[in-house]
Amino acid sequence: MKCIINRRAQFSASHRYWLPELSEAENRDLFGPVANFPGHGHNYVLYVSMVGELDEYGMVLNLSEVKHVIRQEITEQLDFSHLNDVWPEFQQTLPTTENLARSIWHRLSPHLPLVKIQVYEHPQLWAEYYGDGMEAYLTISTHFSAAHRLARPDLSLEENYEIYGKCARPHGHGHNYHLDVTVKGEMHPRLGTVADLEKLQNIVEEYVVEPFDHNFLNYDIPYFSQVVPTAENIAVYIRQLLETPIQEQTDAQLYKIKLYESPNNSCEVYASQAETDAVPSQQQEPALARN
Fold first, then answer.
1. Angle between helices 231-249 and 197-204 (to 10 degrees)
2. Catalytic residue from among 40, 198, 214, 275
3. Is the pLDDT of residue 166 over 50?
4. Residues 42, 167, 175, 188: which is the catalytic one?
5. Does the active-site annotation cover 205?
6. pTM of the model
7. pLDDT at position 204 over 60
């Protein structure tokens, strides 16, 4: 029986986005404040996912040995380092979060049966790499606060209560929504990015956060005058809002939307081109209670 196991590690390091072939003005125009000398730092969190058959002792791998490999190959070298200088690959391609995940994969793959490398630059920005050439995934996280009511206008109050419970109360209720937007793309061979991060953040702010934040979705967002604003429908609509501008304004494609309605409830929807491959289709999932 195969099983995937995950090991967490962390390191603190600095980096700078700067290309020596460009002038100072060109670097600042391209990278903004992250081009500042001598750079800036992060507390990186690393997740290493590995796959294998369970052995007679109920293990995929000996985690003590995994810990030693990650420490020797990665954290001892990167911790309290300046990433631009520590590994030769960062001379060719900048040490972005995406390229850091890719470089860690190639350093660990001779030693461990990897399936995924995930690197958190901070809690609102992380990258994933699956060993597929220069392709990587980048996720940004944001939030908005909004009210909604779950009720179909063609049903009576009693019928809506039967379906949606307390969420059908006439005056609605609110949530602090958290939103993860994941894009995928080919890393630029010199910049190490799959998307212009500032453009991506601006798109999410313009199309989602600004119009949704501190509004009553049923009344302030025309789409939800006819569509019940469940977490699932909100996520689907956010996908609809973001797919085209992300593709047109960045070098990446939208891959996934994950919306947290509360710490207990969340949902995921995949972009149109990823939906068929990403979503299981074996059986219908049971309905989830709203409360």
1. 140
2. 214
3. yes
4. 167
5. no
6. 0.91
7. yes
